[in-house]
Specification:
The protein has 137 residues and is of the alpha/beta class. It has three helices and five strands; from the N terminus they run βαβαβαββ.
């Protein structure tokens, strides 16, 4: 049960760090936490402006088979909003959208991508968080 003041919130902009969503096999507890966060937002009746950046290290290669359902499935429960943008690292965006083309946003290194026809959100890619790999000769 959400506190009453949550019903008054109309806009949220935040960064989420779900680093285990970037594992080759996504742990069940991390998947559940991610789904629970979206469920909480879906229960906020006044929410009309939502911008979420999901932070994760580079997408594993090959990507998990259920990547699109895990990352985008919970967004389907969100109602209609004036602004609903989800920002994801570029290597994930390629798998999530299946769109190799670019639609760069002015004055930034972000780009809009299409997902499924009728999606209730805009998927935006940003540069990956690169993982340093130590090399010892």
């Amino acid at each position: 049960m959400l506190p009453q003041r949550f019903a008054l919130i109309s806009a949220i902009e935040m960064k989420w760090q779900f680093l285990n969503l970037g594992c080759s096999v996504i742990p069940a507890e991390d998947r559940q936490l991610y789904h629970d966060m979206w469920a909480m937002l879906a229960r906020m009746p006044s929410l009309r402006h939502l911008e979420i950046a999901v932070m994760a290290h580079e997408c594993p290669n090959p990507a998990p088979a259920d990547l699109k359902e895990v990352w985008l499935g919970p967004l389907k429960q969100m109602g209609k909003m004036d602004v609903f943008e989800v920002l994801v690292p570029q290597t994930y965006a390629t798998h999530l959208s299946g769109d190799e083309g670019s639609d760069y946003l002015p004055s930034s290194n972000l780009r809009n991508l299409s997902v499924d026809e009728g999606s209730n959100f805009t998927l935006i890619a940003f540069p990956d968080i690169t993982t340093a790999v130590p090399c010892f000769g």
